[in-house]
């Protein structure tokens, strides 16, 4: 099993805001401010148990901020079902967007669509803001909510067996490459140089469901690669060269 990524690189919506985080351990409040554009995700590292939800309250200083399309966060601690509630208000009316997200030991980073579930009236209301984000653990397990951020762009990029795609290692890209499987299996991550010549292959075990392909943890040299994922069971030898089209 690959080690989880240490950092999550996200393309964030440009805004200025303050975040109040309440610790689930000692119930103390700390004020964490992010000021500027394209800020990195906020690091919280809050314990999340079934008995104690975690709430992050947002207070904006820029009145021109709009509701972002996605909430993106990291969560570690094994298998569980996490409920995420996002409270949106224009100062008069309120809307709560709720989604259950299955977390597991194969993935660290998760994404929740947000703007798609906001009513038209709220989405086009310049006064509508995100007031809080609450994480609740529905099972008797211990988890850690690490990084939390908002973005206009999805970070999820699903790939399939024998699909040809490119990755840029070491650039801090926000893309999260995932592969779905209906059974546990071994796969080969076949790496080609940008000119199409075969470089090397990496064996990875995946489980039923969604699995992250975490390139940054594969000890690969920085640079652009062309990737083809193949099933170990078919026993086909990777091509020595593939045609690369940009």
Comma- or semicolon-separated keywords:
2% helix, 246 residues, elongated, 50% strand, four-stranded antiparallel sheet, six-stranded antiparallel sheet, mainly beta, single chain
State the helix count.
1
The class by helix and strand makeup works out as mainly beta
Over the alpha carbons, how many angstroms does the gyration radius reach? 20 Å
The CA-CA distance between the termini, in Å, is 32 Å
Q: Report mean pLDDT, rounded to a whole number.
A: 79
Pick out the low-confidence regions.
Answer: 1-38
What is the share of helical residues? under 10%
Biggest pleated-sheet summary: 6 strands, antiparallel
- The percentage of residues in β strands lies in over 45%
Task: Explain what this protein looks like in three dimensions.
By secondary structure, this protein is mainly β. Helix content is 2%, strand content 50%. It has one helix and 17 strands. A six-stranded antiparallel beta sheet has the order 2-1-4-9-6-7, with no helix packed on it.
What is this structure, in a nutshell?
2% of the residues lie in helices and 50% in strands. By secondary structure, the protein is an all-beta fold.
What is the topological layout?
Blueprint (H helix, E strand, L loop, with lengths): L16 E6 L6 E6 L7 E7 L5 E7 L9 E7 L3 E10 L4 E10 L5 E5 L6 H4 L5 E9 L5 E9 L4 E4 L4 E6 L6 E6 L3 E9 L4 E9 L2 E4 L10 E9 L15
Parallel strand pairs: 11-13
Antiparallel strand pairs: 1-2, 1-4, 3-10, 4-9, 5-8, 5-10, 6-7, 6-9, 12-17, 13-16, 14-15, 14-17
